[in-house]
Amino acid sequence: MILRQALQRASEALASHDIEDAPLEAELLLRHALRMSRTGLYAELGQEFPPDKTETFWQLIGRRLAHEPTAYIMERREFFGLDLHVDHRVLIPRPESELLVEKAIELARRPPGSPRRLIADIGTGSGAIAISLALNLPQSKIYATDASAAALEVAAVNCERHKVADRVWLLQGDMLAPLPQPVDLIVANLPYIEEGALGQLSAEIRWFEPMSALAGGADGLESIGRLLAQAGGKLRPQGCLVLEVGRGQAGAVTSLAESHFPHARVGLAPDLSGMERAVIVEV
Question: Looking at the structure, do residues 102 and 169 belong to the same domain, yes or no?
Fold first, then answer.
């Protein structure tokens, strides 16, 4: 069997199991099995499938047919232009969360000449947000907290990979409790899926991703509400918060923020789909 035929068969198998973007997923797994770039693969599509790689490839396809996310199979995910290690210990970083990084960078650089140097990423998981901020704000110090020691192990791998371990301080504990000092900017992508909606999530999410990073309580706002209640004592004067929220939650989170910070300016930022994805609180 030549590579083109294997790619086609894999794509058809994934599509028959309602796997979205089946051709792309098949290509990613084939490249992973062969350790080839996209350019290299398409230059070799007419070649015979290497016999020593055949079993490996179809095992990968089998895992995907069982709904294991491709990011976990490959143990990597791209986020904000970075190649990150991910596995079952952490939530897979989503493109929507890149908006938090963009807004945090804007706030950290304002006003010009007076950058916010102390930043906290709460619920860091893989470290995607903290590392992105460290690379784009080299003068800043980043605290990255997570209740999960296992998640922090993954974050440590990524900090070493991207050479920011000296500026990203990984701290285990609940929410803001581990922070050793008040900070200028708090960024958080906390669990916000409503309890009643958890069963409606895809099999990829329900069966494989850590539920503790998804479940936000009865209304989805349990963790966000606790963070806002704690934030007053952990923000320096004129500090800011950037919070990711789910569909339809922006209004409720805005009200919560205004109740805890009545004199703050609270704004919203949409993601690429137009959904209000980030709540920005400028104290």
Answer: yes
What is the Cα–Cα distance from 171 to 175, expressed in whole angstroms?
10
Is the same domain home to 83 and 191?
yes
User: Domain holding 126: CATH number?
Assistant: 3.40.50.150
Domain identity same for 10 and 133: no
Query: Is the Cβ–Cβ distance between 282 and 265 less than 8 Å?
Result: yes
Q: Which SS3 state, helix, strand or coil, does residue 272 take?
A: coil
41 and 156 in one domain?
no
What's the token pair of residue 109? Answer: 């650089």
Residue 71 is assigned to a structural domain of this protein: no
Q: Do the bridges between strand 235-244 and strand 276-282 make them parallel or antiparallel, or are there none, so unpaired?
A: antiparallel
Task: Say yes or no: 274 and 208 in one domain.
Answer: yes
- Residue 219: exposure state from Cβ atoms within 10 A (0-12, 13-18, ≥19): middle
Rounded Cα distance between 44 and 40, Å, is: 6
Integer Cα distance of 127 and 154 in angstroms:
8
Look at residues 115, 93, 142, 122 and name the one whose alpha carbon lies nearest to residue 223.
122
Within the chain, residue ranges assigned H as helices are 3-16, 22-34, 38-43, 51-65, 70-74, 98-108, 128-136, 149-161, 203-208, 222-231, 250-260
Q: Specify the pTM.
A: 0.94
Residue 154 lies in a domain: yes
195-239 tens-digit pLDDT: 999 999 999 999 999 999 999 999 999 999 999 999 999 999 999
Residues 35 and 130 grouped into a single domain: no
Q: 15-49: per-residue pLDDT in tens?
A: 999 999 999 999 999 999 999 999 999 999 999 99
Closest CA to 123 of 194, 76, 169, 191: 191
